């Protein structure tokens, strides 16, 4: 992958810091190759979202092109202007989420850059989802129209209840997942329930490991960079079969534990710890590391949550696979971003001993900015930690201004450092 990236005209990417994360990054490329192989063997390829249960795809051996992952890569590789432009020429308004304009551009382009020739395969089926937002379902329609392929939509009920998760919501979403399986079975795939239970058992064990990894990441100084955290959070979804093992995540936990034991952080002389609560700057990923030149590290960021919410392993029961998957999705703090998400960030501020919060407002996201002000107030009330909210469309490079973003972050760091000095 590095070679493909070096050839592209893009801003410099951060490199993985931990050895095991570098291995994961290569394993993700193996995952793309497996999809190409399946396509060459005549298997129907499914265009889908990372936010549909991967366990179902794994249990049915379905090769999947994750559209929103490719959209994010287009931005990370500095190609968002080009692919958003293609989507706009096809009739998608510029006000639509930039991740989805990138997705449509990559999927519907007549010609693609080398990386996408490797990562994209023309789909035979599409499985759409309305979680976490309607953009997810809409961008699929462009792909369905382009290729004239059969499609199916999974409907996730929005949290409209207080307190305990109601059984009727779990039953409804479990039924939606059974419908997804029925759609795949109508197109040549077979569900092996025993394999699905094994996949759920794998997720349960993985979530236990991820909870241990999360504890390591909370250490001071922060042992894991923001970029490594994003790759590691995405890895369970897109790693190739060979690399998708518990062993690779055990190694990640052990490498982190070793760093924590030695007191090794990603920045020398850590002075400040930050929480990033908006969509991060995919088109300039180095921005999440920008504050490090002043000893300030982004210890936690939102992409980890977007890539997959880690449900409490105690709530996962492989004997009830569809219900376990439904619970994981319904409990996700992004369903929808309200009280659950605000509580999640307040908890993260405490657990990660955060000094300041960066709240980036992405103009073309109609969902996440809606809770930024409420999150800022809740964090301030509960912990006294300040938040800066600022405009940053860090997905469509045509709307991104690095200089003004650096100036905003620097001014906020000045305030945080002065505050810390006064308190000491
Ligand atoms: S939540 Fe916002 S950023 Fe994410 S896909 Fe939806 S509109 Fe885009």
List the keywords.
single chain, 424 residues, alpha/beta, Rossmann fold, 2 domains, 4-stranded parallel β-sheet, 8 strands, binds iron/sulfur cluster
Tell me about this structure.
The structure is a single chain. With 424 residues, the protein is an alpha/beta fold. It folds into two domains: 16-191, Rossmann fold, CATH 3.40.50; 196-423, Rossmann fold (3-Layer(aba) Sandwich), CATH 3.40.50. 54% of the residues lie in helices and 9% in strands. The protein has helices at 2-7, 19-40, 54-59, 67-76, 80-89, 98-108, 114-119, 134-147, 167-186, 193-217, 226-238, 246-262, 287-290, 303-307, 321-331, 339-351, 372-383, 402-423; strands at residues 46-48, 64-66, 125-129, 151-154, 272-276, 296-301, 356-361, 387-391. It has a four-stranded parallel beta sheet with strand order 2-1-3-4, with helices on both faces. The protein has a four-stranded parallel beta sheet with strand order 6-5-7-8, with helices on both faces. Helix 4 (67-76) packs across helix 6, helix 6 (98-108) packs parallel to helix 8 and helix 10 (193-217) packs parallel to helix 12 (246-262). The longest helix is centred in the middle third of the chain and has 25 residues, at 193-217. It is globular and about 65 Å long. Mean pLDDT is 90; it is low at 2-8.
Shape: globular
Strand proportion, as a percent range, falls in: 5-15%
The helix-strand sequence is: HHEHEHHHHEHEHHHHEHEHHHEHEH
Name of the CATH architecture of the largest domain: 3-Layer(aba) Sandwich
Sequence of strands across the biggest β-sheet? 2-1-3-4
Detail the poorly predicted runs: 2-8
Please, how many helices?
A: 18
Mean residue pLDDT: 90
Each distinct ligand: iron/sulfur cluster
Counted up, domains total: 2
Structural class: alpha/beta
